[in-house]
Amino acid sequence: MVKILLMLGTLLTGLFADKNEVAVRPENAAAAKQNLYDFKMKSLDGKVVDLSQYKGKKVIILNTASKCGYTPQYADWEKFYEANKAKVVVLGFPSNDFGGQEPGSEEEIGAFCQKNYGVTFPMFAKVVTKGEGQSPLYKWLSTPDLNGWNDKVPTWNFCKYIVNEKGELTHFFASKVKPDSPEFLESLK
């Protein structure tokens, strides 16, 4: 019973802590020490992916989870990716940071995403998005000294970071923002 109450509390915290928060790169942002193209990440199938292959496209980085109230967003982001993949790529980074909602192995995550949502956008190996053991990519995304302006770490699953065609971080969106949200669509202009 205590375990169930703790899980419910964690879930409610995620649903109510996410305030549709948006952060936008200011025009006077400091020069970034790194950009997206400096990173190589491991895919779900264990291959090293050089993120510089996405030069010239906008990139949406999502921290994902298979057992979250926001998990149905996989369908939204897949639909968006299919409609826009010539100019925009969606990258999914599973994380078990929020309520233990991504406990599966890379193989289980891949099977879940394909079976339930038909995900074809690139998915990566599980990462730590905040705190001790934070992945270098998420450290860059959330450290102003590295990215030039942003200090927002994910507040729950399915937070979004937008990177422009030059590899510069331009926006952060909290979990509730979907691909059809006006503020998200504006960020792609």
UniProtKB/TrEMBL annotation:
GO terms for biological process: response to oxidative stress. Pfam families: GSHPx. The active site is at C68. Keywords: Oxidoreductase, Peroxidase. Residues 30-189 form the Thioredoxin domain. It comes from the Bacteria. GO terms for molecular function: peroxidase activity. InterPro entries: Glutathione_peroxidase (IPR000889), GPX_AS (IPR029759), Thioredoxin-like_sf (IPR036249), Thioredoxin_domain (IPR013766). Belongs to the glutathione peroxidase family. PANTHER family: GLUTATHIONE PEROXIDASE. This is Glutathione peroxidase. It comes from Siphonobacter aquaeclarae.
